[in-house]
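Lab notebook page, bench 4
Experiment: in silico fold of construct C2
Operator: M.H.
Input chain length: 75 residues
Purpose: comparison with the prior construct
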Amino acid sequence: MPIRRLLKSSMLAADEIDILTRAFDQALRSLNLCDRNAPDPLIETIARQIIDVGASTIRDPMEIAKLAIKRLRLP
């Protein structure tokens, strides 16, 4: 899962990582994408955007996913 790899060296608490992981999963479901271990630039870009949005004060995984998708201008 790309988001776990990106968060591996972060200083985030376990609950914050859980929120971002759930937001990532929600974003992938919303876009009808599956999480693959094979490198995929789109999925990695979504993971990075989730992390960026998650750095705000928003803690709702659904809202984080929606904002990340909106920022990427994806349907």
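Observations: The mean pLDDT is 90. Helices lie at 2-7, 14-30, 41-54, 61-71.
Next step: discuss at group meeting.
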